[in-house]
User: What shape does this take?
Amino acid sequence: MNTLKIKNIQPENAWKPLPKSEWDEAAAKHLLMRIAFSASENAIQACMRSGLKNSIRNAFGGANVMEPPEKLVEVIEGYRTQRDRQQGLPDPERRKLRQELARKSRETIVDMTMNWLQNAAAPQNSAFEKWGLFWENMFVVTSQKVKNPAMLYQYQMAIRKNSFKDFGTLCKAISKSPAMVQFLDLQQNKKGKPNENFARELFELFMLGEGNYSEEDIKEAARAFTGYRQTDGQFRFIKAQHDASKKTVFGQTGNWQGDDIIELALQQPAARLFTPRELCKHYLSDEVIPDAYLKGLGDDWAANDFDLTWLASTFFSSRLFFSAQFRGNKIKSPFEFLLGLVQDLNVNIPPLPRTYINALRSMGQSWLNPPNVRGWVGGRHWINSATLIQRRQIVEGFFNPPTERRMNGDEKRAMEKAKESGKARFFVTKGQGEAWLRLEPKNRVAALANEWLVNPLNPQVENDLIQFLNQNINRGLPATRTVAITLLQSPAYQLA
Amino acid sequence: MKNDALNFPATRREFLSTSTKGAGLLAFSQFVPGFLRDSIAAGAPAPESDRRILVLVQLAGGNDGLNTVIPYEDDNYYRLRPTLGIKKSAALKLTDDHGLHPSCEPMLQLYKEGNLSIIQNVGYPNPNRSHFRSTEIWEGATDADEFGDSGWVGRYLDNNCSGTPGLGDPEAISFGNELPLTIQGDTNHNLFSINNRPGRINRADYGLLDKMSGEMDVIDNSSFLKQTMMDTLVTEERIQKLFTKFSSTVPYPGNRLGASLKNVASLIASNLPTRVYYVSLGGFDTHQGQAANHARLLTELSSSLAAFQQDLQQRGMDDQVLTMTFSEFGRRPSQNESGGTDHGTAAPLFVMGPQIKDTLVGKAPDLNLKHNKDLQFSTDFRSIYSTVLDKWLECDSQSVLGSQFDHLSFI
Assistant: This one.
């Protein structure tokens, strides 16, 4: 990963608040695109009325978390009673029960993913959920390994409950989440037989980064986390399996327990750089921000007790965040693309997992299931001919709904159910097209481009689009749909 | 990226004109699809005489096997399907005790000619009855309780077996709205998916998208995106042209599957080095009013497959192509109260081509079942995959499927 050369701004000024004079509609658009998924004209105007600080507060405030999937209770019960039910049963029946539970688990993860997508697509939840994605991509667990949906649900709730407290509290909560206990083999970590997996990733991928700890630190720290267990999705600390003897980590000796190790790691200078660096990668630039810039933010963050609310509000209101070189140059992840698209089109995500979960996977992203513990690499890695074709087809899909004939029974039922609950706006309507049609071709192109694209249209391309509408004036609606689809399928739309 | 960006032609027109003249190709060969590059180098793409192609036909929704291959001598069949059962007199006789659905006349012909193999009662242990999950199992070729992010053809592509296309050529092409898991590997491949409704082939953007991809830009990632999009569009346009240039003279039925297979035949005839094609026919989830719907679907399947095979024969390319159907599950032996059938387990599948050695493979299901009980499969679908991988695609099946599955006798 390249380190970026920062233009026109000195480290000492980087994190100062954006001057009032520079807070304009373009800045509001940048804020909205990065803090969440889309920037409608209405949302930009609301930001202009609120001012920068309040816009940030409003973006995060008032968010709802998703409803747990209906089947979750049943699955939790299934795991809880698994052993009792299996006792004394012959092998084939035991296997059958296990497989039945695995099947239900998988279906529940699908339901949960759909719930999460639909929840994150609601504008009032978007910034909070994007913040959640940031932490999920840092403290990685994968549904590939953690198959119990109850643990995954608890894990993502632990992130949402703690991600605006102080960083130490968040780290401690994650270290005790059953999903993490299972994912990084804390379950196997016991007195006399330490398993280093969690301790290593805690330092390397969660708190400090490579090169900022010794192998000895990992060995010693692993002993402090002995006795962390989960049973049926509940965290437990088993004292008998905990190594209570002295450990020396980062040169400090004591009868350390897991939480102490997190506190010791926080005192390392690298901890001040690591999270700000990851934060910039998620929100600002695929290229790495130089340490000279990160240091200022990290030191002040440490002075503010690693408070995450402080970090978010300082970061999103900073001069560096709004610096010209970062505007409109970030490639949307598949989640950002899909969630932004449904907001731009003012539709809900149709309850069709076969279509949307598969499409997301084709584009390279499945919820709570990054390819490995490092998380998604992101940036240009999202883009190749196959993923671009998939992105284009998703856009097409919102303009050309699937026919009933193409749906299977599950899908028809889900669509019926959604219609009954009033969340039936899944596809671009004729009325939407007619509203666009009321504008003159020139203004129509300008309005759509302005609403959907983060960078201004090249004047030549703008003319081509206007000309196309003028040439097809007698078939206004289909021609406008063509322009709309083109804008949303364009390379420009992939940028935030 | 920056240096390349400087060399990249400013417009698609410029791109196409330079590339057809063969000038300056070195400067941006990275962006030229391989087959364009090769055809410029050699004047025309070199046909590969020993090229072996696989065409997959997905029957989405769960095809009712018992009404596709009908056990008309089994009283249990008529006990389980008092009204939905196909009468012996209507079934197209295959053997003394089995017949095809009356809509499958063209497939009966293929069978009699020895070009169609019926593999009976195919499924897998611990069947899953969710469309989503069972499709995933078939496409990923995993155990029922195993979860992966890649498909069996994708992993075949990962293995980089001999005969896979060069850089920039589509390695697999699917027709439909999404890239099927089947063709996705653990590593990135050049995969194409084309949406071809009859009479309305894919892009209705009148070149506008090309325009939005052509102009160069000061923004770094924007240039990168435009280059990738341009690459995709050039390949796409080339493929669209091949549909027309190599269009068939054989009449295809005017339905969706016919249109897809017609296009597949054109691409095969054009000598595109793509090895795998994937087409899909949906609507097999016949919970109610099955009789008429299933007949319509099987007509579409049967007439399209026959036209496709005839087309390949006329072009003298049939010996290069093996075609295979699959569906996520069969349906419940007992008919339900709505004149349909619910999700079940095993079902027969079809393999088509002149390579067929055995036209009826595997054991028919045992129908001595209580009401609403499911079939017990007799052939694991991965045995079919392993046969196709080892014997047809010449790729070690164990490295794709994770373990060894017995070969079958159909090829």
The longest helix of chain A spans residues 91-121. Residues 453 and 493 of chain A are 6 Å apart (CA to CA).
